[in-house]
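Standup notes
- DV: blocked on the single-chain target, sequence here:
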Amino acid sequence: MDYILTTKLLIPALPAQFIARPRLMLSEFTRLTLVCAPAGYGKTTLLTDWARRLDMPCAWLSLDASDNDAQQFIMHLLSAIQNPCPAFAQTTATTLTSTQLPSINGVIRTLLNELCRLPQHLAIFIDDLHYIDQPSIYDALAFMIDHLPSHIHVIIASRNIPLLSLSRLRAQRQLTEFYTEDLRFNRLEVAEFCNQAMQLHLSTVLIDSLSERTEGWIVGLQLAALSLINNPQPATFINSFAGDDRHITDFLMDEVLRFLPAHIQDFLLETCLVSQFNASLCDAIRQSHNSRELIDELERTNLFISRLDHKRIWYRYHHLFASLLTSRLSQLTPDRVVVIHHRASLWFKEHGLLSEAIQHGIKAGDFEFVASIMEEHSATLFSLGRFTTALAWAYQLPAQLLAKHPKLTMLCAWAGLVMDNLPEIERHVRAASQCLEPYREAPLASQERALFGQLALIRSCQYCLMGDVERAEASVMDALGSLSPKQVLYRGASVCLGFCYYAQGDLAKAQRLFTENAAIRDAKYNLMIPIFATLGLGRTLLLQGQLVKAQAVYLQALSECQILGWQDVPVCGMLYLGLGELYYEQGLWQDAARVLQLGIDMTAAGHMQYINTWGRVLFARTQHQLCLDITALSSQHDNLLQSYSGRYVVETPPLSATLAQFWRQEGRLDLWQKWQQQAQLPSPEQLAYERRAEYLVLLDAYCQQKQAQLAQPLIDALMSHPHSSQNIRSLIVIKLSSMRLALQQQDLENARHHLLYALALVQDQPFKELFHHYYDEIMRLIQHYALDVQHYPAICKIESYHAYQQTMTEIATEPRMTISSSFGDVLLSQPTIVLSKKERQVAKQLLTGATSQEIAEQLCVSLSTIKTHTKHIYAKLGVNKRLQAIELLVKLNLA
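- DV (later): unblocked, structure below
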């Protein structure tokens, strides 16, 4: 695996020709200090000077292109803080080195909690942030800065303005800014640099001229000074010094390089292709043994070389200098470029720096070498949440080469499945099939047959994304017939088969397979399998009308993840999304919004496109109910939503149906009509039962539009399916729809029959949102028949829920509306059990699966206080276990 490069974490040494700049000293500490200017304006030197002067611990992180990966970034940031604070976040550091990496957002939250506990001030320096272009890293960094404790200060240097909340920080007076105009050398600084640091002895007139022509650009001054050292006509040189940066630099490079000895010029050209180097690496590239001496010579002459550590091991060239050397190398000896990259790749591989080895190998065209590295270290490159970086490398390999490396090809296919990229999945499946299809008849338990089994499982998942249940089931049976029951992928195939049964409506078989494979504690290397199984089990229980059990399944899984230290792994976001759906069904919108936001953040970090989009649509529906602006979806999601409009996928979350519900909820009739066209649902006579969730949305539309002639055939077709009796939630929807149709036809007796049937199905399960959708019709029948609502718990719940919803609507119409967490208290609780305000706050946290320590931190009280409140809650409920308490809290709406 990649090691933490410690040179990134060390405060650089100040250059020999350093000029003190008192006018740029920090006079006050704000949450963020930003130094922003183009290359060559002394940003790193300024930060280094600050770090060495500050009377507080300083954490330093120098970034480069290899840090443009969320997990790599967060590991380096944590290590940087541990430099001055060795005991900082040791548990989190251990988690980051495990095979189940958490999401960057989860780790940032943990780091913030740890930073709050630091007893002293701390300055965190982040240099060269412009190398980062990943939005997820900027989002996490912005969140961290927005929530920093007052004794922590972040200092950032970047060539461009970072994507952070600068305007808000500026308004809060929590931002100190230094830009190009601040960093330019003024005339006095130019004079001090030229005549004292560089000993050029220039006249006042020449100093003024040089200052004017360079406009205080520090690197330009450095380059000019090097050219002036041995120039007998400084005035001529300075007066001809003009043009844009590129021309200036090209000219000066010629002047500087022309005076260097040939062996130094060769060394510079041979070592300019690596972002940082040491003597050993340079020896390997140059095939020599004198690199140490040459590096010492460069350091003595201060020839744009920077020492990266105090032991004088690692160095780098100034970025502009390296860029120009690279250009010169390509012009003079282009054949040497490939050779240098090849030798560098071998050295980095030998020393365990995989990212650098792969990048140089690709540039050298050593694709076979790169493929072998990626296969050998696939667990590191693909399983630790970094597969997007690995995919970017794999995409640069020739297709014919991938066909020779089926393991690597299948890893790329798995990544494509997670990202729902059907073209890439097909490309890699085809490539792998060329090698593995002959293994279909290989002996059982052989490695060849297992490889074919993995390919068959990938194909099955591919067919699931394509919405082809029959071919998905056929392929997964091939996988089960080729994999050993002891293999992890056999469990994955069992879960995939569960999806097929779920789609076909055989919920009993699906539940058995999901239950067998949902134990988080049994996961060792692949957490995704039990999480998918848990989501499948939770949604199966939801359809079977067992909301309380479904909620207990999710909370139990989250609790197990917490115990094992996996609570921040991106795939765990699926559990929060499933829990959010249950909260929505129960009308607990505040709770739904909270856990859905968590799930969206985590699945986004895992690039789980289908699941993440489903979560976003659920969150948008929740925001609609809360009378909030829809922030879960924006114009940037339009194309993505259209790609899922009417698209059926063999998955437990029904994204297409949820999307249709949202568009109807928002009154977007244009998109609703487009969805109907794109869905192309078969007629009731040719019912595709696997798409029942979409049919139910269509049924609701028919009923609201009083189109009985379209609704009734659909009801008959859905009810006549052999597995219809297993899907309690669908039956409830069908019966309530039938009640609405009967009332439209003034058939009150038949409507009453359908309502009582639905009430018998729901029993005491909290389907509040579903029943409230038919509130007016239900109340009409209750009043007409004088039904005793006390005999029907579901009706009691929707009456209180209706009052709650009306209260929400009234508050939403008030100016400057705010939605507070106290709205959950509007829901009626069991009168015989009364929790205090503090106990209700603790109960809410218990339902999220949070530990006692986390609840204490969230509510800003001591751990002993939380334990006391928990003990009182248990006593009032008459239970002695957390899971029992959670089930009763949900059932009685006490949280």
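- Follow-up: Residues 807-832 have pLDDT under 50 and may be disordered.
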